[in-house]
Amino acid sequence: MDQEQAIPPEETILRMVKLELSQVSGTDASARSSIVACVLDQLTLDMLNTIPTFLGYESLNPDDAPYCITPSSDPAVGLGMFVKEDLTEGDLILAERPLAILPASVLGGFSESDLEDLFDQLTALMDDRARSAFFALADCHKGPCRALGIFKTNGIGLGDDLVYPDDSGDSAYVGVFERASRINHSCSPNAVYHFDLQSFCLVVRAIRHISKGEEIFISYSETLLQAATRRQNSLQDYGFRCACPACAMSDISDAHRARIGSARPVDLRTPPEEIVAISGEQVWLIELEGLQMLGQYVENALFLIVAYTALEDPARAAVYEDKVRCWEIAIRGEHANFDNIELAKRAGLRIAAAARNDDT
């Protein structure tokens, strides 16, 4: 990494750097970018310097990529990403390195002139191909600094591995991507993403079945808010009013999502029959609303494994074991951990044994 220049007025905190990544053979072309333009805090920069080599992500050859980028079904949002073949839960769609990253708080934390200087420096670090791809992205804000508008329109949060600590509560880093930033929003997304630090790639996977020709969607915002709020947020932040099925049928969807957000919690002291009723309804509602990416989905599925194991119904427990496995693969990819399934089954067996002892 070549340290380039401190950014005023926080020169002791933030650094403009050019992250040089080795070429990755045999992967999606967008994952082979050798330079990522970055604004990083010193702690994150020090952490990245401890990684000797960023691993090549086992992605897809360009000719085998399961998607194409064409005009979206909604003309208001421009281009979209569509699948070329049927995909199932956990299937890899894309692994892509960013064109540029910076802390989200920077987007609103500088004067207009400082932001123009910052983005002039940031885009100057890009090679010609990356710079061309960056400026080909949409800017719905139409302000004086086009690069800032592109970041606000296309930025994707990079999760917990890269964290910029400040007092604003807005700690996430944001990345802009040549292809992933083309994926449109739905309040019922069929894909999820996470940032894989070891490969420095955004990894996108199917969270449920996606049929050939269907558009790929991720969620840009909090999905359990009421539709009117979600649509206002999408208009303000991204320049479009969401028209996904959940927003189009908002009366029904809002009622379902309110029930998801207000469900009575269960724990291992809850009788198995009550877990079946409460968590069973939650899983049904979440699937009905297309919200399988929520943590509540896998939490309730795990409690249903506990309950059906305790009720000595292994066939129904196995149904929810499959749901947890699919969720883990979609959310965590090769880092999927299935230990919770075994822990849930053991908890159910203990409850069943205790019930038998009480009967004797």
UniProtKB/TrEMBL annotation:
InterPro entries: SET_dom, SET_dom_sf, SET_domain_protein. This is SET domain-containing protein. Residues 65-221 form the SET domain. Pfam families: SET.
